[in-house]
Structures are given as C-alpha cells and as structure tokens.
Write a structure and sequence with these properties.
One of its GO terms (molecular function) is transmembrane transporter activity. InterPro entries: MFS, MFS_dom, MFS_trans_sf, Tet-R_TetA/multi-R_MdtG-like, YfmO-like. The structure is a single chain. With 412 residues, the protein is mainly alpha-helical. The protein has a single domain, classed as Growth Hormone, Chain: A (Up-down Bundle). Helix content is 80%, strand content 0%. The radius of gyration is 20 Å and the shape is globular. The two termini are 27 Å apart.
Length: 412
C-alpha cells in the first residue's frame, strides 16, 4: 500500500498539469448536460427517456471505443491520441449545439464519446507514466481532475443553460479547444517509443480474474453512479426544481463532495485499511444512500442531501477502484485502463434510459431502488473475488515487478 505525502502530488512536470487540465474539461462533459436535461426535453419536445439517451449514446460509444484506445495510442503515441480525442470532442460538441432535434444531439454525443474514450484512457496512462511521487499520487491527481470536472460541469451547464440549452455545448467546444492548445504546447513527445499492443489485449486482460472481478464490480457500481447523476434531475422536477441554475448548483455540490473525498478521503482510508476492505465498507453505504433517495422521493431537502452524500461516497469509490485496477495485474497500464474503463462505461450507458423507463412504468422511486441493488451486486463481486485481489492490498510494486510488467507489454 502506498503512503505518498500530499506535497508530492503538487510537484509535477508541466506535461502532467497540461493533461490534468484537459482532463478536467473532458470530465466536465459528463455532468454538463445534467442541468439542461429538463430544458432539452421541453425545448425539443422529447420524452425523458429520449433525453437520457444523450448520456447513453455518449457512454456506450465511450465504453466500446475504450477497448481499442490502448491499441491506437500504442501505435501513434499518447500525444497524438490525446489530440485526436480533443479535436473530435470540439467538433461534435459544436455540432450538438447547432442541432435542431434531439435525435441529432444523440448522434453527435456518440461522436463526442469516441473522442472522450481516446482522451480519457490515454490521459490516465499518461499521468501515471509522467507524474512524480508514485502511482497513488498520479491517480489522486487524475481523480482530482475527474472530481473537479464533474463538479464544474453541472455549474457551467447550469449557467450557460440558463441562457440557452445550446450554451453548454458551445462552452465545452471552446474549453476543449483551449485544452488542445495546452497539450500541443506543453506535452513533449514521449522519449520512449510506445510498444504496440494487440487489438485483443484489453479483452484478454479481462480474462485475468483480478481485472475481471474489478471490471464487473465497476459495471454494477456505475449503474448506481449514473442513476444518481442522470435520473435525479427528472426526480427533482415534480418537486419544483427544473431550472438549469438550481440543478447546476445541486450537482456542483455533488461534484465538489466527490472531488474532496477523491483527493483526501480515499488516501486517508487506504492508509488505514486494505483497499478491498474500503470498497466492502463504502459500497453498501452507497446502496443505503440510494435506498434513502428512493424513500425520500417526495422530499426536496431529502433528495438534495442524498445527492451530496452520494458524491462523498462516490469520490472514495472512484479513486480506490482506479488504484485497484492499476495495481491488480502486471499488465501494461494503458491496457488495464482500456479494459476496465470500457466495461465501466457500459454500465453507465445502461442506467439513464433504464431509470426513466422504470420510473414511468413502475414508480418514480424504483430507479433508486434498482441502483441500490446494483451497487450491492458490485459489493458481492468484490467479496467473492477477494482471493484474486490480494495484490491490490499489498505493497508497492518492486523494480523487478515493474520490469516484468514492461516485458508483458512487449509480448502483448
């Protein structure tokens, strides 16, 4: 288990800060449409389920493309992969903002998801590879970027969305263009030539029990995550909250809570407890939070509290799960990241439209109960797979293991 001092985290090469900055903007794309979901549904006369497809098309393509991102980046290098990803996001975010109907936006969000996949999985591997202060420091920095992006996304979405639902899309395109310039200027070409990995590497990686169990757990965990993020705006509408600014502020609180526990909560817990134990304790707490949201469906204050508490728990789980994946196997990190992220995002793709369908056909609280059950399934998978996850609770990789990991990269 690693015990990095916090001051190590801030002493990073410029390249790491450039990638972290662009990561913040990339993750803003996830929560950005959150406050404008009711507005898009109203403006474009779309059903809640059609509107939730804005999440699904984005996350589904992100998930599928993630499996191939390590293959691409190992051939053209991290910098080019990051830049292609950012360029795609700029183009498709701009196109979404110019759309005249919800079907077009769903399509353009899919293209946005492709850019996101190329960027996100490569960004994690780049930060881990270039950061000083060890793997844990790098992952905390990456999760901080994720938390900050997820926090700012709804706030910016709310502010720009109060002008027009098109505003957040144009805002993202502009910010991504700035991220693109930052990467061009600050990220030097990798001195070492990337070792090409095979197309099948991420799929073969999932056959390793440690990564397989973590990816499966992440799929079910992400269903709970996206029920909270994507369905709650619709659950708040009957309680009188549908304007973009109020929704933006509520989810800014959620994202801020997530960022705080990503950076400070997770390291505090993992310095005292094994990583798998942290997951076994915090995942059931998230299930209880989702259960409470379902029971408090008619209480505005109750739902807001559940959203913020959910953010605190999600921050811990995101960081600890990512650390587990990076430490679980001797696979090259881009391959492990590709495989895990691909499965995880597919879980996120399932949740939003399923939630609105459940709400419409059974009751408004059903999605929260389904999310709670899903998170309990994730907990069960971590418990069942515990014997395969001993390595993630162990000590830092030695130089010999690091060398072995690199030789596996040569062989894949």
């Amino acid at each position: 288990m690693s015990h990095d001092k916090p001051n190590n985290i801030l002493k990073q090469p410029t390249a790491v800060w450039a990638v972290a900055f662009a990561s913040v903007i990339a993750f803003m794309g996830i929560g950005l449409v959150d406050p404008i979901l009711p507005a898009i549904a109203k403006s474009l006369e779309a059903t809640p389920t059609q509107t939730e497809m804005l999440f699904t098309s984005y996350l589904l393509i992100t998930g599928i493309a993630m499996f191939f991102s390590s293959w691409i980046s190992s051939r053209i290098g991290a910098k080019k992969t990051l830049l292609i990803g950012l360029a795609l996001i700029v183009v498709f975010a701009l196109a979404a903002g110019l759309s005249q109907n919800v079907e077009s936006i769903i399509g353009f969000r899919a293209g946005w998801g492709l850019g996101n996949a190329l960027f996100i999985s490569t960004a994690l591997a780049t930060i881990v590879g270039a950061a000083s202060g060890g793997t844990s420091s790098a992952i905390i920095l990456y999760e901080a970027a994720l938390g900050l992006g997820i926090a700012i996304g709804p706030l910016l979405g709310g502010l720009l969305g109060s002008w027009s639902w098109r505003g957040p899309f144009f805002g993202t395109a502009t910010l991504m263009a700035i991220g693109f310039i930052a990467i061009v200027l600050l990220l030097k070409k990798n001195p070492e030539k990337p070792v090409p990995t095979s197309v099948s590497a991420p799929f073969r990686a999932l056959a390793k029990p440690a990564l397989g169990f973590l990816a499966a757990a992440a799929l079910f965990y992400n269903i709970g995550f996206f029920v909270l993020l994507a369905y709650t705006p619709f659950a708040l509408v009957p309680l009188g909250v549908e304007d973009a600014i109020t929704l933006g502020l509520i989810f800014f609180g959620w994202g801020l809570a997530l960022a705080i526990t990503s950076v400070w909560g997770a390291p505090l817990l993992t310095s005292r407890l094994p990583r798998t134990r942290v997951l076994q304790i915090v995942m059931p707490l998230l299930a209880v939070d989702l259960l409470a949201a379902g029971l408090l469906i008619r209480s505005l204050a109750g739902l807001i509290v559940c959203v913020i508490v959910g953010g605190l728990l999600l921050g811990i789980l995101n960081t600890v799960l990512t650390e587990c994946v990076m430490e679980a196997t001797d696979l090259p990190r881009p391959v492990a990241s590709s495989a895990y992220s691909g499965v995880r995002f597919l879980g996120g793709a399932i949740a939003p439209p399923t939630a609105t369908l459940l709400a419409g056909s059974i009751s408004p609280s059903t999605p929260f109960f389904a999310g709670a059950v899903s998170v309990l399934v994730a907990t069960a998978l971590i418990i069942i797979g515990h014997k395969h996850l001993k390595r993630v609770d162990g000590v830092e990789e030695s130089a010999i293991e690091e060398a072995e990991a690199l030789s596996v990269g040569d062989a894949s």
